[in-house]
Amino acid sequence: MSNVTFNNLNGQGITMAAVINFPADFDESKQYPAVVVSHPGGGVKEQAAGLYARKLAEQGLITIAFDRSYQGESTGEPRQLENPHISTEDVSAVIDYLTTLPYVDNNRIGAMGVCAGAGYSANAAINDRRIKALAMVSAVNIGQMFRNGWDGSVADAAALPYIDAGSAARTSDANSGEYSQIPLAPMREEDAPNAELRGAWEYYHTPRCQHPNAPGYALTRNLNQIITYDAYHKAEAFLTQPILAVVGTNAGSKWMSDDLLERAASGDKRLYLVEGADHMDLYDVANYVDEAVSQLAPFFNRHL
Prior knowledge:
two-stranded antiparallel sheet; eight-stranded mixed sheet
């Protein structure tokens, strides 16, 4: 394992922080397939993304888990910016870095993510042909989630007040010099609307997996970008790479994985259901994570 920093070449002057994981028999004179692992919204590389990255490295892959721009140990102001367009480009910025490493085979690079990180990875795969295979765990298209609700039951137009709120926040930010916040997961237990999302509170705000670099919120101004963002935009034309979506049978977010698989142009796309797991279980519950990895590792080793 190696902690690294590198310049994001996308033009914001960001220095990105990441952890590279190596197979047990790593030989720097050889070339290996590599997988970029993106963290959930509000998370950092030390949580679910790092867990999956370590486990996939045990299966012979080089993996890199990273903190998105403005988050974790990566630089950028204001902190906790969650602009989904930048988050998508961050995946490609990590790939830029991987292509400079002599032990990475540039023709065998894959991407995966957890929750919103899966959506960003899908969007990156649509945009960046260097990604040869895409995997998603408990995928969330962050635009869909904010527009349509956790279960997809809310009409797009009902989200217009959120765009108004984001617009008002930008004015307030500009005039006050302070940035108002929105939760990416319940900040308090009593704010959780259901048992599944109580798990999100527990994950981020209790010893289960809390981390000082993962406060669990974004900026209200980000509503302008999030509400109108579609992580799966033009998947029906350009997402031709092999796809594996891993979802718990009890996940309220499952519809967002179903949507991508229905829309994607890929002729090799598969849904794997983890029996009994909900959305958050696939972040860190050992038996569910191991079952997910039992599918992810062969998928990447087959396609990279």
